[in-house]
Each structure stands twice: as structure tokens, then as C-alpha cells.
Amino acid sequence: MSNTWKRVFIALCLLLGTVGGFAFYFWQRATRLPDWYTANSTVEPINPQIVAQEAEAQRQVVTQKVDQVVRQANAGESVAVELDQKELNGLVQSEVNRSVKKLKVAKAVEGVNTSIRNETLETGAVINLNKLSETSLSSQEKEALTRVLQAFPALGDRPIYVGIEGKPRVENGQLVLDESTRIRLGGLSFSLPEVAERLGIAPEELQERINVNLQLGDLQVKDVELQGDRLVIRGAAAN
């Protein structure tokens, strides 16, 4: 082998080694699971039904807390309610459960968690698409599943974390995240336009899908604000 070909061969080996190392690093990041999930799953298997029941119970606690504040106010009077991370997590998780419980894809959700960090709200779920049988899905769900797996092949054969992080505001009774919102896939982070492009949909459509309804008894929600590890919800009493 001539010196020229030796140099080309060595260069290719180095390049492949670099690419292989990067791919392995990317894979590790993409399949990283959050601590809140691994801490629970190493003790005992997570039961989605029990998790859903606990979330609904927490939602009832939050609703009672809100109703108590509203009862002490006159109709139309401005009120504010503070929710800690546990209360917020239960509220969001129960809303997610209500949204997907009629869908077959709900079987793939193994856990949902919401947290506040550095004035940013993050909510996400660990999903396991191995639990789904395509024969049990509707045509719309099959199409959505195919689109997701084509965009993110790593989702197909193991539990993986998908999250949303951003700064919240309220629009028309929905909890909406701002334009800087990021989508988390394991330990990787993508902008909304990047994810929308991979899924073949408009960024506005993706934004609409990730909005969360805020129904809190007789409180007409008008604004939210992150303060430390709490979410302050402001609105008016409807009673």
C-alpha cells in the first residue's frame, strides 16, 4: 500500500471513529431517562393506573384549595393562588390523563412529571411505544405513530422521555408556553420549528397541541407567574 493510500485509510478510520463516537454520544443523550422516573422504576414497576389515580386525587386537592380562596372573595374580585411543584404536577398530569385516556396510545405513557426550575416550567412523560399494538390503533393514531417514529427512530424500542420546557402564560383559559419553548427528547433539546419540521406539520399546529387547559373550579384564570419553585395563578372569582 502506497503512503498516499495509507494516509487516506488512516484518515477514514479517524473519521469513522469520530462519527461512531458522536453517534454513541447522541444515542446516550437521546435515551437518557429523568431521575424522577428511574428512582421510582428501580424500586417497583410503575403502575399507570395508580399514577393516574394519585394525579386525580391531587387535582381534587388543588381544586378544593382554589375553591376555598374563591369563596372568600366577591364575584369578579381578583384572587391569586400559589401551587407548589407537587400540586402543579398533579394538576398537569391529571389533565394529560383526561386528554389521552380515550386513546389507545395512552397505554404507552408510563409516567408524567412537571417541575419548575430557573423560572422555567417543564412538563414531560416517559413513553414506551413497545406497549402499543398497531392493530389496536385507529387510522389517525397509526398515521401519527408512523410520523413520530420516522422523525425520531429512537422512540421505537425502549422507554424514552419526551418533555416540553418554557415560560408559561394564559390565553383563552389555556396554559401556553412562549416562543422560546424547547422540546426535550431524553437529554437532547430541540426548538418547536425543528420538531415541527421533522413531524411534517406547521409550528403553529404543534404549539396548539402542547397547550394545556386550566380548569380550576370557579376561578377564571387570567395570568400565571413562576416565583421560585411555585406557580402563582391569578384570576377572578366567578361566584
From TrEMBL:
<protein>
    <submittedName>
        <fullName>Uncharacterized protein</fullName>
    </submittedName>
</protein>
